[in-house]
UniProtKB/TrEMBL annotation:
InterPro entries: NnrU_dom (IPR009915). GO terms for cellular component: membrane. Residues 3-190 form the NnrU domain. Pfam families: NnrU. It is a multi-pass membrane protein. Keywords: Membrane, Transmembrane, Transmembrane helix. Coiled coil: none annotated. The chain crosses the membrane at residues 40-59, 71-93, 113-139, 160-181. It comes from Ramlibacter rhizophilus. This is Protein NrnU. The lineage of its organism: Bacteria, Pseudomonadati, Pseudomonadota, Betaproteobacteria, Burkholderiales. Signal peptide: none annotated. It comes from the Bacteria. It is found in: Membrane.
């Protein structure tokens, strides 16, 4: 569990700089340059991510069960991740209406992903992992809205073509992950297939 917690501290810590130290971040970017800042940021985030994956894998070997969710929660979680994937894609497709409407779709997608996994999993490692991401997303969303309510949102309502592409790619990515990649990477098949 120590490795998992360390990974969360590193990964979510670097992703929390704008939440807790926006002025410090601005000075660092100005001093280092945007490229070196992004490189250092990415390296630290990668180290944190590797620690999370390793630590979660270790914690799953000897799970501490807090509760056993009903089987239907796994199906509910799998379905709740569908809009999470669409929101993630919406963060990257220019001029889509979803991004224009919610302004911070990736953060909302992380919230939904974490909540879905909290509903379907009852071990201590799951609560630590998904609970940490959910708390981070709540604070990050508030911070992003406070910094600039319309940050990252394209002007207008978005185009129909971009929105359709967002939905199509999001649903396809979700289906690929839910029906194949989740079982292959995580060892859990959300729909039991």
């Amino acid at each position: 569990m120590v490795v998992l917690i360390l990974g969360l501290v590193v990964f979510l810590g670097v992703h929390s700089v704008r939440i807790v130290a926006e002025d410090w971040r601005t000075r660092r970017v100005a001093g280092m340059g945007e490229g070196p800042w992004k490189g250092l940021y990415s390296l630290i985030a990668l180290v944190g991510f590797v620690l999370i994956v390793w630590g979660y894998g270790l914690a799953r070997q000897d799970p501490v069960v807090l509760w056993t969710p009903p089987r239907g929660m796994a199906h509910l979680a799998a379905l709740l991740t569908l809009p999470a994937f669409v929101l993630l894609v919406a963060a990257y497709v220019p001029r889509n209406a979803i991004r224009a409407r919610v302004h911070h779709p990736m953060i909302l997608g992380v919230k939904l992903w974490a909540l879905a996994h909290l509903l379907a999993n009852g071990t201590l490692a799951d609560v630590v992992l998904f609970g940490a991401f959910l708390l981070w997303a709540v604070f990050d969303f508030r911070s992003a809205r406070r910094r600039a309510p319309d940050a990252g949102a394209p002007a207008g309502r978005g185009s129909g073509g971009a929105t359709a592409a967002t939905l199509l790619v999001g649903v396809a990515a979700w289906a690929l992950f839910a029906f194949w990649a989740h079982g292959w990477l995580i060892g859990v098949r959300p729909f039991g297939m």
